[in-house]
Amino acid sequence: MIAYLLNLATLATVFGILAASLNLLIGYAGIFSIAHAVFFGIGAYTGAQLAILFIPDVLLACLAGGVLAGALSLCLALPALRVRGEYFVAASLGLQMMAVTLFSEAHSLTGGHGGLVGIPMPTLFGIDISEPATFLVFCLLVLGGVLLAIRMLMRGSFGRALMAIRDSESAAEAFGKDVPRLKTLAVGLGCTLAGVAGALFAFYMAFVNVESFTLEQSILVMAMVIIGGTATLAGPLVGVLLLLLLPAALSFLPFIPPTQIGAVQQLIYGGAMTLLMIFRPAGLAGQSTGRR
């Protein structure tokens, strides 16, 4: 039971980083992307390849996964500069579908549908940290660092400028804000953090394949952010805990067949998002009178 709880806590921590990175785009910059799983996958494949081919240092894997995901985020940043609103959502959907095809076909890099297996146990400066409690502590430290960095950024001029763009891009331009540069930085930072989460995910699973980086994963992470509450630090974490604990709770209900749990989950996610948008659009942890 303890091992199960440790594994669940580690997964929640990894998804907490991922949800916080998407919240940077949705909550603070007003950029709605449904391609976030792409950069999660880039980080996971990069970290896994680094561990398999060179050294299983989790810190190096996080840095490499984050840097590559951030660099490739220009694929998302460029349409963000040219379109907005529902047009950007459509553009990010196209990127998501294209990336899944690439992940499936690039066998030499991703292992195709079979994925990458045999990922070594994680180390940190040569020290084995594969023991579940130790790896959880490392993931919690990364999550704490990510949340602290986001808090500091959002309280500074960069964060205020992002929120100005979110509320009114035209007004931000009128006040002299460099909207294209700020949106590019926001996308790059959010995708970099997604890459870090992906590298941690690869070590946690010891196996990665394309099934973890599909459109459904992107929608799940978006649901975590929206249900928990956008533009807050606690919101994405609340959403992660709720949506990760839900499958575990459903598995203990005797009247739901195991084969139907996935469908029931999707119904609950959709219903919860619909009700929140109607009665509490700021999310469970958000302020009902406005964003902070």
Question: Would you kindly provide a written description of the structure presented here, covering whatever features stand out?
Answer:
Its main location: membrane. Pfam families: BPD_transp_2 (PF02653). Keywords: Cell membrane, Membrane, Transmembrane, Transmembrane helix. The protein is mainly alpha-helical and 292 residues long. It has 13 helices and 2 strands. A two-stranded antiparallel ribbon has the order 1-2. A hairpin with a 2-residue loop joins strand 1 (123-124) and strand 2 (127-128). It is globular, with a radius of gyration of 19 Å. 43% of the residues are buried. The model has no long low-confidence stretch (mean pLDDT 90).
Q: Outline of this structure?
A:
This protein is mainly alpha-helical. 72% of the residues lie in helices and 1% in strands. β1 (123-124) and β2 (127-128) form a beta hairpin.
Features:
Branched-chain amino acid ABC transporter permease, 292 residues, branched-chain amino acid transmembrane transporter activity, mainly alpha, 13 helices, two-stranded antiparallel ribbon, 1% strand, ABC_transp_permease
